[in-house]
């Protein structure tokens, strides 16, 4: 799906085989039910919405996701990493430090 702002037109078609700027991939139910903003035209592809063929980008993204899921959790912070008088909560890669009063 993409918008052609100069022509006030929304275009819904099959998934692209490669990344294109300013386009959005929609699942089939959303592609079929999409409506254009008031006053705009909607151009819809009449054929089937077949998935695009797999690309190396898909395989790389899958491999990255598997590596991320298999990564061991970060070790807890050492006691010398804390500021005196402050307690910190740790969740994932973020650290919450309460405001000082």
From TrEMBL:
Q: Where is this region: Disordered?
A: 66-101
| A Pfam cross-reference name | DUF3499
Name the InterPro entries on file.
DUF3499
In Swiss-Prot or TrEMBL terms, this protein is called DUF3499 domain-containing protein
Q: Which organism is it from?
A: Paractinoplanes rishiriensis
């Amino acid at each position: 799906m993409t918008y052609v702002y100069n022509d006030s037109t929304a275009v819904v078609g099959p998934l692209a085989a490669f990344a294109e700027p300013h386009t959005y991939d929609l699942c089939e139910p959303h592609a079929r039910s999409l409506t254009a903003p008031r006053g705009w035209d909607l151009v819809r592809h009449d054929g089937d919405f077949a998935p695009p063929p797999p690309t190396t980008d898909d395989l790389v993204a899958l491999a990255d996701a598997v590596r991320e899921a298999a990564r061991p959790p970060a070790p807890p912070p050492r006691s010398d990493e804390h500021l005196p008088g402050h307690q910190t909560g740790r969740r994932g890669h973020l650290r919450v430090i309460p405001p000082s009063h």
